[in-house]
Specification:
TolA/TonB C-terminal domain; TonB/TolA_C; five-stranded antiparallel β-sheet; elongated; alpha+beta; 3 domains; transmembrane helix
């Protein structure tokens, strides 16, 4: 009797194994015959349909991986999957990925996706291979390029205003903002600022750099005209510096900032006259590299005058920033071991309150160097806001900063 029971159990196990094998091989249809059609289609009479709004569903279920968010990693992950005959999603795969964390999140989201309306061929449900992009994008301030037409319009408008028609700044709030801009990275106070002013005192034999002549293919006549422009500007700068006096230099500079800014505009108008249209267009693109007009995400408008004043000034204290970066950056060990070198360019926004946001990689070298660059730039202290001297308002400005990684 015991032998019979053991045998029965053995046959029962064998029956279960055989039944499982059959299920794995195919599906029994209503007539009792085995349906073994595992064909996957990419074209059908009726393609599969998601039941609802797929964009909304993904938006409600996707979670931006923290490591990718912290390092400003964005992009599009292409996912492929099969919509089965019953509409369920299976065989989810990343066809084209970006970063491990984003790839894993894409797989997680699509594997939990609800059933679709299946594809049909001749009214019968079929398996269908489907591809879908999943875009990971960090919402950032909108930044738009300053166009050449806008630049020319500005020069035609502002370049006709004589320097003597520009008034000194008298608003104490604006003056204090200008003072804060100069003091932010100026070590040594007024003595250091005096040395900076001494460096821009006129040198009457100032000449156009040879590299400038080669870059824009200036002929001798053009070079002669441009030499005269440079000399003219140095003389005008000297007049403004003398007008500042010797006391409260930073405050006096702040009061005279509209004149210094307008002098830059007049210089640009004169430079245009020394070049042909093709040369000047190339010069403009070089001048505007890495500079954009920005709109903050909360809906604040940028300076609407397209006046170029706040774009024609290099990042306040850029020398100090570069020194600060050199002190703070830490060359990743993994990059050193692999002899990875290069220049990472990081973009960021100075908001109207001076805060730094939207730090992201513009030009990548390696994930380890990119991550270190973003980490360092996110530690920048807030800036004094950039001011538009025409509308007397703070503006958001987009900048880029290069971070060089070089092994000795």
């Amino acid at each position: 009797m015991e032998i019979i029971k053991i045998a029965s159990k053995a046959w029962y196990k064998l029956y279960v194994i055989l039944f499982c094998c059959i299920l794995n091989a195919g599906v029994l249809n209503a007539s009792g015959r085995l349906d073994v059609d595992t064909t996957v289609y990419v074209v059908a009479d009726e393609g599969p349909e998601f039941k609802g709004d797929i964009i909304q569903w993904i938006g409600e279920n996707v979670q931006y991986p923290q490591v990718a968010w912290d390092n400003g990693i964005m992009g599009k992950v292409i996912v492929a999957f099969i919509v089965e005959k019953d509409g369920k999603v299976s065989n989810v795969q990343v066809v084209r990925g970006i970063h491990e964390s984003l790839n894993e999140e894409a797989l997680r989201v699509f594997n939990k996706m609800p059933a679709w309306k299946p594809a049909k061929i001749k009214e019968e449900n079929v398996r269908y291979r489907f591809t879908c992009p999943l875009t990971f994008n960090i919402e950032r301030a909108e930044a738009e390029s300053y166009s050449y037409d806008e630049f020319i319009t500005m020069l035609d408008r502002e370049g006709k205003i004589p320097l003597e028609n520009i008034q000194e700044e008298t608003d104490p709030v604006i003056i204090q903002m200008y003072v804060a801009q100069k003091q932010q990275f100026l070590k040594g106070g007024e003595s250091a600022f005096k040395q900076a002013l001494d460096r821009i005192s006129p040198s009457y034999n100032v000449r156009v750099p040879a590299s400038f002549v080669r870059e824009y293919k200036l002929d001798k006549e053009q070079q002669k005209k441009l030499d005269a422009v440079y000399k003219w500007k140095r003389l005008e700068q000297e007049k403004l510096i003398k007008r500042m006096g010797k006391k409260d230099l930073i405050k006096r500079y702040a009061e005279l900032s509209p004149l210094f800014a307008h002098l830059n505009i007049l210089e640009e108008a004169k430079i245009r006259e020394c070049m042909n249209p093709e040369q000047h267009l190339l010069y403009f693109h070089d001048l505007m590299e890495g500079k954009m007009i920005s709109h903050e995400p909360d809906g604040h408008e940028s300076c609407s005058c397209k006046c170029f004043y706040h774009l024609n000034v290099s990042l306040h204290g850029i020398g100090g920033i570069q020194n600060w970066i050199a002190r703070e950056v830490k060359y990743p060990i993994i990059a050193q071991e692999r002899n990875i070198q290069g220049k990472v360019i990081v973009g960021f926004l100075i908001n109207t309150d001076g805060s730094i946001s939207d730090v992201h990689v513009v030009q990548s070298v390696d994930p380890s160097l990119d991550a270190e660059s973003v980490r360092v730039m996110r530690r920048l202290q807030p800036f004094a806001p950039v001011i538009c001297p025409i509308h007397k308002r703070k503006v958001a400005v987009y900048y880029t900063a290069p971070i060089n990684f070089q092994l000795q």
